[in-house]
Amino acid sequence: MIKLRLKRLGKKREASYRIVAMNSTSRRDGRPLEELGFYNPRTDEMRLDVPAIVKRLKEGAQPTDTVRSILEKAKVFEQVNA
What we know:
Elements: E1 2-11, E2 14-23, E3 34-40, E4 45-48, H1 50-58, E5 62-63, H2 65-73, H3 77-81
Parallel strand pairs: 1-5
Antiparallel strand pairs: 1-2, 2-3, 3-4
């Protein structure tokens, strides 16, 4: 199963994350199938590749709870259902 989840980057206490599509059995910081965006919780900055995320969601990829909330803030699910 393909999951959309966060991959951790950065130093201790200064984490930022990439939103990636990965096999659900892969380790957290393993090689992703595709990188779909960037999220920095310290500045609340988000950069998303929306067409690629919509494509993955239509193919059946399941987002984790955190990624789901990020995508809801960016209103990505409205484009999936349209």
